[in-house]
Specification:
Elements: E1 16-18, E2 23-24, E3 33-34, E4 38-41, E5 49-51, E6 56-63, E7 71-77, E8 81-88, E9 90-91, H1 93-107, E10 119-122, E11 129-130, E12 135-138, E13 149-156, E14 161-163, E15 178-185, E16 188-190, H2 192-195, E17 199-202, E18 210-218, E19 221-223, E20 227-232, E21 235-241, E22 244-246, H3 253-256, E23 267-269, E24 281-284, E25 295-302, E26 308-317
Parallel strand pairs: 17-26
Antiparallel strand pairs: 1-4, 2-3, 4-13, 5-12, 6-7, 6-10, 6-11, 7-8, 8-13, 9-12, 13-14, 14-22, 15-16, 15-18, 18-19, 18-23, 20-21, 20-25, 21-24, 25-26
């Protein structure tokens, strides 16, 4: 499927710091959620211009300092997609004038937002048209952002689906190394060097619980993986791919990520119950496998551009 090609939301050379589908855990929720966008560096600066990625019109502005997303702008584009920009420090042009008016009305001149904490403003089509490359806001860290950056999401026009923004952006692979920190089999942890080409013995014939801690590491940034495949005797039995998700899957991160995950260490579950349906899980057949003999396991970890790292080992039932 072909997707429109959009521009970048930052003026500086785009540096990808976080990817679509990563593990997140908010202070405001019990369950983890998925990172539904990509993040670009703003060189730790507040106030860097954030650009509309394509022509369109503003659908919604959210004024909220403490929500997950903070200050937001949502823009509708042709071809049935919208873009969302979050964690802004301020808006641009007429949007900021409207925001100032509403803040004064609902929060008062003191800026006390304790009563009316969140302000959502919806606009009619073409009330506020924007052009590709136009500044629509400024970088910040409102909401639950640790540092100033640009958070970009691409959604369907009805906002039921969220897409990996990298499918819309002409961004080149920066060659950040793919790291496999550990593989866990039935709770026993192995480094990639320990397990490579080795035999792991398991009790019984049930296919073991397998988890993998893996990421792309670019400087201080730990980025989630785009695709993970697992083969048993060269048969593809599990595939996880972060291309698109349903918006109502936002808080289902605990299905794919182990409870030991955090924003800097993504521990992926590769044995998910057969009755689980989740958009990134493309193939899930491990439940149909009985370990009655020595089996070869191949795990292939890929980034968005197709670079891979492979881990091969064997599992065998104890005699």
């Amino acid at each position: 499927m072909e997707f429109p090609r959009y521009g970048f939301p930052v003026k500086i050379s785009p540096k990808l710091t976080s990817t679509f589908g990563e593990y997140r855990k908010s202070n405001q929720e019990i369950e983890p959620h998925f990172h539904f966008g990509v993040d670009f560096s703003t060189n730790w600066k507040v106030g860097l211009g954030i650009l509309a990625v394509q022509d369109g019109y503003v659908r919604r502005v959210v004024i909220d300092k403490d929500d997950l997303y903070g200050y937001q702008v949502v823009i509708v584009h042709p071809a049935g997609y919208i873009s969302l920009y979050a964690h802004l420090s301020a808006f641009a042009g007429s949007i900021q004038k409207i925001a100032n008016m509403l803040e004064n009305e609902f929060w008062g001149s003191s800026g006390n937002e304790s009563i009316n904490k969140k302000i959502v403003v919806n606009f009619e089509p073409n009330d506020i048209p924007v052009k590709r490359g136009e500044v629509i806001g400024y970088s910040g860290k409102t909401g639950e952002a640790r540092v100033p950056h640009c958070h970009l999401e691409i959604r369907s026009k009805d906002e039921k689906w969220v897409y990996n923004p990298l499918m819309f952006l002409n961004l080149k692979d920066d060659r950040a190394p793919i790291i496999v920190d550990e593989i866990s089999i039935n709770g026993v942890k192995y480094t990639s060097d320990e397990i490579e080409n080795s035999v792991v013995y398991v009790n019984g014939t049930t296919f073991p619980d397998i988890k993998i801690s893996t990421a792309e590491k670019s400087g201080y940034n730990v980025r989630g993986i785009y695709k993970i495949q697992m083969k048993v005797d060269n048969r593809l039995v599990f595939e996880l791919r972060f291309d698109k998700m349903k918006l109502d899957e936002f808080r289902k991160g605990g299905i794919i990520y182990s409870e030991n995950s955090n924003s800097f260490s993504h521990l992926y579950n590769l044995t998910v119950p057969s009755n689980v349906i989740l958009s990134p899980i493309k193939i899930n057949k491990t439940h149909s496998i009985s370990v009655k003999r020595k089996c070869k396991i191949d795990i292939i970890v890929s980034n968005f551009w197709g670079r891979e790292k492979k881990i091969d080992f064997f599992i065998e039932p104890r005699s």
